[in-house]
Amino acid sequence: MTVSLTRPPPLERVDPRDVGLDADQLAHIDRHLQRAYIDPAKIAGCLTLVARAGRIAHLSCLGSMDRERRRPLHEDTIFRIYSMTKPITSVALMQLYEQGRFQLADPVAKLIPEWRSLRVFRDGRHPGFVTDAATRPMTIRDLLSHQSGLTYDFLESTPLDAAYRELGVGRGRDRSLRHMIEQLAELPLLFSPGERWNYSLATDVCGYLVEVLSGQPFDQYLREHVLGPLSMNDTGFAVSPDQADRFGANYQRAADKSLELLDDPQISPFLEEPTFFSGGGGLVSTAADYLRFCQMLLAGGELDGRRILGRKTIELMTMNHLPDDSDLAARATGTFSETTYDGVGFGLGFAMVRDLARAQTIGSVGEYFWGGAASTIFWIDPAEELVVIFLTQLMPSGTFNFRGQLKAIVYPALLS
Fold first, then answer.
1. Cα–Cα separations (whole angstroms), residue 23 to 55, 180, 377, 413
2. Distances (CA, A) of 165 to 152, 158, 168
3. What pLDDT is attached to residue 1?
4. Res 2: pLDDT
5. To the nearest whole number, what is the mean pLDDT of the chain?
6. How far is Cα 13 from Cα 17, in angstroms, rounded to an integer?
7. What is 162-182 written as a DSSP string?
8. Furthest-apart CA pair in the chain: how many Å?
9. What is the three-class DSSP state of 142?
């Protein structure tokens, strides 16, 4: 699945005052990002979008999309959104929930029979793991809420993470979701399902479940049932030749803290169609496209007369599914995710703010969000009818606290 062959029209903006926002306060966004990140070359470029009540009050593009070729960043630049793919995949799976195809409490082994005997890591290293029986089966809710016991190779904190790296589990654009499922069937879980929270390949497994339940390849299902109906024409698992001139470069911090090119857009793997359609991190997208996804959620599952999901389903997805309404600080087993842990819960594909004081942030209880490995972020605040999207290309995420800084600037701009 590649992005579309047409260039999108410019996004329409309104006077911030028309949607109850202070333009002078919003102007601090660009001043801050230019001074703190663009001028000292901590990032090559960035795009920031603030929308309220479905209208864009602030949209700015700073710096370069390709520093080596001195190409400025534009509003239609295509970004690797990595884990911002996860909410899209979760929506796709929950569409099938709305058709009665599964229940959240259903065992995953009902759809993946070879996972019936998954065991739990106790000690040792691959291939000589010492394991115990799981205390209960993994459910589909466990996958959607990252309480499955799966992990990620890049966490680099346990022998199980090391086994994922050794075997390339969930890696390789030339593999398949089915291959990943078969690999995971041979490995233990990090913990018994439901015992803890751990960022993981769980959402990639959700993409596989979409294939099993729908009978369609995951990329085809996304195009027909989510991306197509939302007119997210620049969102896909690959960038077509006609769109390659809008594809940005991806960077990382070198040892001396300078910017180092990580993925050249002219020779990037994203220029070729993959066979592994990663529901956890495989999509590229634009600000305009991701705004449409966010506005659909904010509007209760419908956009431009096309219903993607039910209002009550979105409510279910964005409530805290951690036991006893706890936060990630109490449940997380690792030290990495796309969010801080204190005062933050997790639902079915999204994190959400549960306690502003514990989270030490300005905002609203109930705002939900996620981010991506290249430092992309978004959040949706239903109480304020607010959507904020920030796109850049710097790995890894968490290098800078863009979310906290932008929240500190955006929320004081609210006039009503």
1. 14, 48, 22, 7
2. 8, 11, 5
3. 57
4. 53
5. 96
6. 12
7. HHHHHHTTT--TTS-HHHHHH
8. 64
9. helix
Residues 6+ apart with CB under 8 A from 124: 130, 159
Q: Which two tokens stand for residue 274?
A: 């993959």
Q: Rounded CA gap, 338 and 369, in Å?
A: 9
Q: Token digits for 104?
A: 């959240």
What is the sign, positive or negative, of the torsion defined by CA atoms of 345, 371, 308, 209? Answer: negative
Q: What local confidence, expressed as pLDDT, does residue 7 receive?
A: 77
Beta-strand relationship, 377-381 and 119-123: unpaired
DSSP single-letter state for residue 257: S
pLDDT score recorded for residue 6: 63
Question: What stretch of H or E contains 141?
Answer: helix 140-144
300 phi, psi to nearest 5 deg:
85, 25
φ, ψ of residue 236 to 5 degrees: the values are -175, -175
Distance CA 412, CA 393 (A): 27
Q: What is the pLDDT of residue 339?
A: 82
Q: What is the pLDDT of residue 235?
A: 98
DSSP label of 269: G
Encoded tokens for 220: 């085809």
Exposure of 62 by Cβ count < 10 A (0-12 exposed, 13-18 middle, 19+ buried)?
buried
Q: What pLDDT sits at residue 8? A: 84
With pLDDT > 90 as the criterion, what percentage of the chain qualifies?
94
19-29 burial, b at 16+ Cβ within 10 Å, e below that, comes to bbbeeebbebb
Q: Name the token pair of 389.
A: 């999207």
Antiparallel, parallel or unpaired: β 79-80 and 386-391:
unpaired
209, 180 Cβ separation under 8 angstroms: no
Length, in residues, of the chain: 416
Structure tokens, 96: 């099938």
Joined together, the tokens standing for residue 89 give 């995949």
Per-residue pLDDT tens for 295-334?
999 999 999 999 999 999 999 999 999 999 999 999 998 7
217: nearest Cα among 293, 275, 283, 284: 275
Low-confidence ranges of the chain (pLDDT < 70): 1-6, 335
Decide if 121 contacts 128 (C-beta within 8 A).
no
